[in-house]
Amino acid sequence: MKLKHKDIRNIMLLSLGILLAVRLIFFLKDGTSDLVESILIWIIFVESICFLGVIIYPVKDNLKEIFAKYQDKIYIAIMIFLLEIGLLIENNLSLNYVYLFSLLLMILLLSLLSLILPKVVSKTFDIVLIVFYGFYVFAQDYYHRIFSDFFSFKETGTINEGIEFAKGMYEFSFLHVYIVVITLTTLVLYIILRRTSHLDFNMKSLKKVYLLPIFIFFLVNVNAQYPVKSARLHLSDHYLYYSTYSKDRFVSKFGTLNLLVKDGLSSLTPSFTTKRDIEYIEDYFDNNVKVHTDNEYSNMFEGKNLIFIVGESFDSIVVSEELTPNIYKLKSEGLDFQNHFIPVFPRTTCDTEVIFNTSIIPSIQDGPTCYIYNENTYSHSLAELFNDEQYATNAFHNNYKEFYTRHLVYEGFGYDNFYGMHELDLSAEDIRYDSVFLEKSLDYSIPENELFYSFMLTLSGHSPYEMSNIAVNEHYDLVHEYYGDSAPESIKMFIASQIETDIMIGKIFEDLEDKGMLEDTVIILTNDHYPYALDHDDYEDYKNIDEEFMKNQGVMYIWADGIEHEEITKLTSSFDFLPTIINMFGLEGDYSNYVGNDMFSNDYNPIVYFKDFSVYDGTNHYYLSGSSEPYNENIISIASEYYELCRKLLKVDYFKDK
After folding, report:
1. For the segment 283-310, what is each residue's pLDDT rounded down to a tens digit?
2. Alpha helices in 194-320 (DSSP H)
3. Has residue 480 been placed in a domain?
4. What is the reported pTM?
5. What's the pLDDT tens digit per position in 601-617?
6. Residues 262 and 325 in one domain
């Protein structure tokens, strides 16, 4: 008996369903064979390809007719596929089993949408899609080269800041030529064709095509990654698609076209808070009380002033006794945290400011914290804790304070004042010199006759690292004389940009000594993020970095007159900064309110949190999602709860008036 095409299709459909059921039933438990599961996954993938062929088989004799009829849509589909593959190859992104089917499904759905639109509207839709998608892939590649991630439309509020940041940073890439050529060729072919394919929007026409997207959607789910070795939702491709917590992983799984559509729709959908969010937070705090035990560093700075300096893109490669003697003094005489991490989050500097001031995880999925949540207030912030002790709390930055809406964000942090370039009467040239920035701020940053906490965010170390940067131009000869040919040009220019920060710190020492306040003031230096605008290859080679997450290893120096120098190798991070200050300055803070812990506490194991839902415990780098090893159930559980908790804390503005 000869099987009909429909019967073969249904048999293969049933077979794939059975294989999926076997995978779900027998391979989600600990102790199952990874080898057997891997073979099973490959069998499902190969059979899915065959099933796709079976679906298409009936139209094999009409391919020429189909091509002629839907030529315009086929041009667009080919363009999308070529750009997708080019982007993946150029950025070394790995393909997986679900990618092909998810990309095919999205192309099909967009094509069907265009087909049922009125012809005039459809033509406009197609042309806009061609041009916009080409530009989108170009922009995503440019962004990925800098941040090793892809951008979201939710970040459009920071577009001015991004343009200002990106000046002088463009690097030529063959992919960009490839994108322009493919896009323009597709556009020309589409216009020359002068014909727009169309499908009448009625039940008869829809019946001809409705099964195809359903079948492909089934193939997407058959090949998707399900929770491996643990029935946890966040380990699945479904959670990745729903949350888009890592756009880099999302593109590897589903493609940039899916990211474009998913992110676009998500950006247009308002986010709501519910009573359940509050209940979740309250329940978490009730069941996760942190108990802090005093240690040898407790209250050691009680009653002292604090100058906290966050060096723009600062890095340990800058520090030398000859070129940066003042920073070297902080490092060699104070507490030197040698295993300290400053994880980069989506909006880099402003997210790090959120971490230092609140010790909560910034927004990852909902858009930039400094825009989406810039009216939030934090009763438990570092500034508010110092306010409670009658300190003068002031924040300072060389740039204008509206940048990243800091004029709103710092009000929410609770600072008495925020001083930007206009408040300090800094010119466009002055802002590039941290030494000038310090001189103009001295009356406010180091006030006499009162306790003070001053938060200072520098700017000289900002890119570009080339002679157009006047801070680089000012100090390059000095750096070149010291390093000669032992360091790449990009590294020397980067170091030259940071010399101003050392001069600034030297002037702080001088002013404190002149005012007789040196013995009563603590100086802390750290960085906001690694220098991601620096040539990646030069930076990785110079620091001998072989894992991407290790770029986030930063600096933390705590200096006070008479303190005993110590090199601290314990794992610490920017999340731990605030609880540590509570301990050292004897502030009245509830440690349960913070993601981080006192760096000197032995009550809790240190964990570093990253924007891609991964964590580091000092030995292993764990991903909350996917099947990668190693896997630690306890750490994954703690981290998962904190990621969810912090998202809700921001959404409901939980610490407002607490």
Report:
1. 999 999 999 999 999 999 999 999 999 9
2. 203-209, 211-223, 237-243, 247-254, 256-268, 275-287
3. no
4. 0.81
5. 999 999 999 998 899 99
6. no
